[in-house]
Amino acid sequence: MDISIRKAEQNDYDSLLPLFREVHDFHVHIRPDLYKENSTPVGQEFFESQLKDSAQHIFVGVIDDEIVGVIVTKEEEITENSFVKARKLLLINSLCVADKHRKKGIGKKLTRYVFDLGKTLRVDSIELGVSEKNTSAIEFYRSLGMTTKSRKMEIKFN
Question: 131: domain CATH number?
């Protein structure tokens, strides 16, 4: 099984929509108080705007001309002020491997590809958010050497 990685293209949208749905449906399942059901969580116009944005990078994992995974990233600059130091980040906004292709190293290959991109871009760090309930994702990111930087906490009143 040969997995290739390439930049996402405009004509990939229809192949990527099911992956975007998988991610969104998972979030709806674990936090229905925050996320709404939506069969088109990423609209085509928004996807195309991401492709045109030079600070955003979307890569797809492909096996035999089939898109089996996607990783969505965005560069972010933090401006120094009296509270924080200046730094450059690469944020991983989304990672999804098609359910039938999980546990084959695709997610690992996509993430390592982005780690290499981060080194090329000379970012200070690569960061992402992950739900506490997504224990498999937490273990996956830990297996790649990532550590917990901070934690968001809440008290719900509704």
Answer: 3.40.630.30
pLDDT at residue 158 is higher than 80? no
- Phi/psi for 109 (5° steps) reads -65, -40
Cβ atoms of residues 89 and 124 within 8 Å: yes
CA distance 150 to 57: 24
Using an 8 Å Cβ cutoff, are 60 and 70 in contact?
yes
- Residue 32 falls within a domain, yes or no? yes
pLDDT tens digits along 58-100: 999 999 999 999 999 999 999 999 999 999 999 999 999 999 9
